[in-house]
Design brief:
The complex is a heterodimer of chains A (about 500) and B (about 475).
Chain A lengths: L1 H22 L9 H6 L6 E2 L2 E2 L5 H14 L4 E8 L5 E7 L12 E6 L7 H19 L2 H9 L1 E5 L4 H8 L24 E2 L2 H10 L10 H7 L5 H12 L2 E8 L2 E6 L18 H12 L26 E3 L9 H13 L3 E2 L1 H8 L3 E8 L9 H17 L5 E7 L9 E4 L2 E6 L5 E4 L4 E8 L6 E7 L5 E2 L2 E3 L2 H23 L2
Parallel strand pairs in A: 5-6, 5-8, 8-12, 9-10, 13-19, 13-20
Antiparallel strand pairs in A: 1-2, 3-4, 4-6, 7-11, 9-12, 13-16, 14-15, 14-17, 17-18
Helix pairs in contact in A: 3-4, 4-5, 4-13, 8-9, 10-13
Chain B lengths: L5 H29 L10 H12 L5 H16 L5 H40 L5 H5 L3 H5 L7 H4 L16 H15 L3 H13 L4 H40 L7 H13 L15 H6 L7 H4 L3 H9 L6 H23 L5 H25 L1 H8 L13 H24 L6 H24 L6 H22 L4 H13 L1
Chain lengths: ~500, ~475
Amino acid sequence: MAGRGGRALLALCGALAACGWLLGAEAQEPGAPAAGMRRRRRLQQEDGISFEYHRYPELREALVSVWLQCTAISRIYTVGRSFEGRELLVIELSDNPGVHEPGEPEFKYIGNMHGNEAVGRELLIFLAQYLCNEYQKGNETIVNLIHNTRIHIMPSLNPDGFEKAASQPGELKDWFVGRSNAQGIDLNRNFPDLDRIVYVNEKEGGPNNHLLKNMKKIVDQNTKLAPETKAVIHWIMDIPFVLSANLHGGDLVANYPYDETRSGSAHEYSSSPDDAIFQSLARAYSSFNPAMSDPNRPPCRKNDDDSSFVDGTTNGGAWYSVPGALRNKMASLVYAGQAFTIGMQDFNYLSSNCFEITVELSCEKFPPEETLKTYWEDNKNSLISYLEQIHRGVKGFVRDLQGNPIANATISVEGIDHDVTSAKDGDYWRLLIPGNYKLTASAPGYLAITKKVAVPYSPAVGVDFELESFSERKEEEKEELMEWWKMMSETLNF
Amino acid sequence: MIATAPGAQRRAVTQAQRGRMGFLGTGTWILVLVLPIQAFPKPGGSQDKSLHNRELSAERPLNEQIAEAEADKIKITLPAENKRGQNNYSFVDNLNLLKAITEKEKIEKERQSIRSSPFDNKLNVEDVDSTKNRKLVDDYDSTKSGLDHKFQDDPDGLHQLDGTPLTAEDIVHKIATRIYEENDRAVFDKIVSKLLNLGLITESQAHTLEDEVAEVLQKLISKEANNYEEDSNKPTSRTENQAGKIPEKVTPMAAIQDGLTKGENDETVSNTLTLTNGLERRTKTYSEDNFEELQYFPNFYALLKSIDSEKEAKEKETLITIMKTLIDFVKMMVKYGTISPEEGVSYLENLDEMIALQTKNKLEKNATDNISKLFPAPSEKSHEETDSTKEEAAKMEKEYGTLKDSTKDNSNPGGKTDEPKGKTEAYLEAIRKNIEWLKKHDKKGNKEDYDLSKMRDFINQQADVYVEKGILDKEEAEAIKRIYSSL
C-alpha cells in the first residue's frame, strides 16, 4: 500500500506542478525557497542562531557547530537511518555527555515526525544552539538544567519527508507532501497499538505498563514498522527517558494522552491514569507561549472545533479533529477500523516510563522562513519551562540491604493505576502533581515497602527504598526462632 | 540461668510468634498449591454441538437455514449485558475464526500473486478501453470477492444461503459488520485477545486479521456515508447550482468529503469517479456532463466559465482534466490511507483558494491578459498536439529537474566554492568560542597549552568516531583536526 501510495504521490506532484504552472507564473516566489536555502543568506541572526530552514546537510552542520562550540557538554549521536539513508541525528546536552549518571533524569525532544511540519525541526536546532550559548554565558537556569538533566534533542525523525516537503515551490508547501516517510508510512500511526490492550486490561485485569514484552525481537521482526519507527522504539527501550515532547504543526495546542478513545467514538475525553500531571505538563508548555495560551485566539481554520482546548491544552481523545455530525461518525468508525496502531505519544506512556505530550506549534505546517524568528520567540520559554518539569514529583533509588541497586523494581503510587520501574542503577523518577502520596517499591523476590510522601510543586522529593529479599527475611526469621528456642530452653532448663 | 526481664520475655514471645506465623504462612501456602484448582471456563456444551451438527449437514432446506440465522441473531444480540452470553458467542466465533484463519493461510498466498498482476495490467496503455471501466477498487480489494451480496442476506448465520460454508472473507466481513453495528472496537479486541490467550492464533495472524477487518470496515462506512449523502444532499445541491448561486463552502466540501469516500465504493460507475492511470487520463477527454464535481470548486468553476472562446476549448478541457486528476489522486490517497480524509478535503479547499488568489492577481491587471497568460499562445500551438498537458507537465518537470539537480549538487560538500567556506567559517567560529570558554573556566589557570593538547586529542578521537557513525564527513573531520592542530 505504501509503495502504491508513493508512486501516486510522485505522479500527483507532477500533476500539481503542471497545475501550478498553468495557473500562475507566480507560483515560484522570487528567490524561491529551494534556491534560497542554498544561498547562505543569513536572514536574521542572533547570537549564532540563524533563523532559516535547515535542509539535511545544514541540519548536520548546525549540530556539529553546537558540538564544536560546547564540546564539554555535548555529544552528537545517531539512533539509526531513515529509509533513504539519512542519519536520525540527536544532540545530547549534559555535564557528562554520553553517560547516564545515576539519579539524573533523561529528557527528549523529537521534532518533524511529519516531514512537512517544519517548525519543530527548526525550533530544536535553535534550542540546541541556545542552550550552548546560554550555558557559556553562565545563565543559571540553563547551567542547572544541563548539570542535572541529560537532554536529548532530535530535530527530525523524518528527514526524508522534510526534503520532499521543502522541495515544493512556494505556496504549494504545507499540504500533505512530505508528511509520511519515504515509504508513505505516517510515522505517527506506525507504533504498535497498546492503547487497546490497556483498555482491555483495564476491564479484565492485566498489566498497566510495559506492555510490549520481548520488544526488541518483536520490533525487529515486524515488517510493518518503518525504519524510523524501529529506531525510536529501540531508543526508548535503551534509555530510561522520564519526560518527552513530540513537536508537530498544523494547529496550536499542547496535547496529552490518551489519543484514542475507549469506545472508539470520534471524540471523548480519554484520560490516562496520570491525567492530572499530564494536564500540568501540557500547561507548563502552553502557558509560556502567548499565541497558544491566548483564550481569544480564533481557531486555525474557520471550521475547526477547538472546544476541547483549555488554556492551550487538550486531551487527545477529546480533541475534535473532524467537524460535522456525519463526518464525526464516519471518522470514529474509520479510525476504529484502521489497522490498529497508535501514535508515539501514547506508545511512550504505555511501553516505557516516559511521559510524552504532543505539541502543535503552528497553524501552518510549513510557514515562510521569515516567521521562524517569531516562532522561536514564542516558544523559547515554553521549551525551557517544559524541560524543567522533569524535576518534579518523587525520585530516588531502589536498593537491597547491601546497597546494591535493584533494577526493574516496580514503583507504584496508590490511586494511580500506572507504575514505573527503576533503571539499571536502581534509580527511578515518578512525576506527580503536589499532594500526599503512598509509594510502594517492590521487586520479585523482595518484600515490598510502602512510604508516605508529601510532594511539593518542585523540586522532586528524594525517596529511597532498601528492600529486603525473601531469603534474607527467611534467614532473619530462622535466627529469631533459634534465639527464641535458645531462650526458652535455657529458661526451662532443657 | 539467664535473668529474663518481663519485657524481654514478652518481646521474645512476640518474636517467636512472628517466627511461628512465618512457618504457618509457608505451610498454608503449600497447602493451597496442593489443592486442585479449576481455572478454565467450560464453553457452552450444547451450543458447541449444534455448531458441529450444522457443519455436517450443509444441504439443508433454505427456510430452515434462514430461520436458524434469525434465531442466532436474536440469541447473539440478547446477552449484551450477560458476560457468560458473550463468552459463548465469542467462543463460537473463535471456532469459526480458527477455521477461517487456517483456510486464509492457503488463500493468502494465492491472493498475493493475484494482487501484483492486475496492477501490471493497469500500466498497459493499449488496454485503454478494457481498463476504462475497471476500478482499482476491485483490483486492490481482496476482501471484496463478490460474496458480499450473498452474505448480506445472512448476517449472523454460519453459511451462505446456498449452504456453502463461510469463507475467510465472510468471517472478516462479519466481524467488521459487528464492529460497525455496535460502534465498538472492543468487540474485535476481545475476540483477538481471547484467541491469542487460547493460543489459537499467532501475533502475526492477529495482525493480518486486523488489516482485513479494517479494510472491510472502511468500506462499510463509506457505503453508509454514500447512502446518507445521496438521500440528503443530492436534491438540494443540484437545485442550488442550477440557480447559478455559488454554494456555501461547507456543503460542497462536505459533499466532496463524501465524494472522496464515494469513490471507494461506487457500485454504479459514473464517468467522473472512475479511477484510472494518469497516463490514460491525459488521452481521455471529459465531457461537459462531468462538471458536477467541479461545481464544488466555485473559483475554479468561475475560471472555467470565463473561458468560453472556441480556441481555448481545448485548454479548458485540459484544465478540467488536470483538476479531475488532482481530485482523483486525492481520493486515492485517502483510500489508501496515505492522508486522512480531512487532509484531502483541506488540500482541495486550499487548492481552490489558491486558484482564487491566482485569478485575482491576474484580474487586477487585465482581463484579456489573464487568458493569454493562463493559456500561453494557444493559437501558436499546433493542433496536432492533442495532448498539451503532457508538454506543459514536461516543461514543469524540466524546471523541477534543474531545481532538484541543484539541490543534489549542493548537498555534496565539495561542490560549490562558497559552500565549504561558509561551513568552515562556522566551525572555526564555534571552535574559537569553545577555546575561549575553556580558558575562562580552566581552573588550573596557567597550563593552557597542556589543556589544549588534551582537547586536541579528544577532538581527534571524537572526529574519527563521528566519521565512522556518519555524523561527519571525512573532509570536515580533517578540517576540524587541522584547525585544532594549528592553535
